[in-house]
């Protein structure tokens, strides 16, 4: 059973999606849930089916005190590395909240201090606290929506299905068709290659 709050009312949960992908943005969600919010389906987005995430998203967006989602795209990921890009996405999502949170809880073990607001990193926090789980659902659904859209431009990579993750099918498409503008050039795209000629 997920807990409603970690320390304080009006604390924001934040999480990211797409960190391990070869293509597309890393996307962060941030959300402040009302005191007493409860939902029996809500869980870490990775534990939920696509249909359950789609069902939850409008509920979370409707009932949140405030929420936001932010993409950090490939060029910036390549410029500052994926860890920094993930933290930057979370900071930007927090920046866009309509209300300054009382505290920030972050999934994982790495974060950089956010101005004027305390934070705590929680390992597997998306399976422990509602606001982190909710942020993970928002990040995942918004990112999947974006990947479905760019799939139409480059259908041979089947991003509609793999969402940019390094599946065998995705890597085979890279071998056959090369890289697109949406691929992260700093990532090791193919296991047998240390560098790609681009």
TrEMBL record:
Which positions are annotated as binding a divalent metal cation? 15-16, 107
UniProt cofactor note: Manganese or magnesium. Binds 1 divalent metal ion per monomer in the absence of substrate. May bind a second metal ion after substrate binding.
Which EC main class describes this enzyme? hydrolase
Q: Required cofactors, per record?
A: Mg(2+); Mn(2+)
Source taxon at top rank: Bacteria
Q: Which GO terms describe its cellular component?
A: cytoplasm; ribonuclease H2 complex
EC number assigned by the record: 3.1.26.4
Q: Which NCBIfam families match?
A: PRK00015.1-3
From the Swiss-Prot or TrEMBL record, give the protein name: Ribonuclease HII
**Organism, per UniProt?**
Flagellimonas aquimarina
């Amino acid at each position: 059973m997920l807990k409603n709050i970690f320390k304080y009312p009006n604390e924001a949960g934040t999480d990211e999606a797409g960190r391990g992908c070869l293509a597309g943005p890393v996307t962060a969600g941030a959300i402040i849930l009302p005191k007493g919010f409860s939902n029996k389906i809500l869980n870490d987005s990775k534990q939920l089916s696509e249909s359950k995430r789609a069902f939850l998203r409008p509920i979370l967006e409707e009932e949140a005190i405030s929420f936001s989602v932010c993409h950090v795209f490939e060029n910036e990921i390549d410029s500052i590395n994926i860890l920094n890009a993930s933290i930057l996405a979370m900071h930007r999502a927090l920046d866009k909240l309509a209300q300054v949170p009382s505290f920030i809880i972050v999934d994982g073990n790495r974060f950089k201090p956010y101005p004027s607001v305390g934070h705590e990193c929680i390992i597997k926090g998306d399976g422990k606290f509602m606001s982190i789980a909710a942020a993970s659902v928002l990040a995942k659904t918004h990112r999947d929506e974006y990947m479905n859209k760019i799939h139409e431009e480059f259908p041979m990579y089947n991003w509609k299905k793999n969402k940019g993750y390094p599946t065998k099918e995705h890597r085979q498409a890279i071998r056959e068709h090369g890289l697109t503008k949406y691929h992260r050039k700093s990532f090791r795209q193919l296991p047998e290659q240390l560098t790609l000629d681009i």
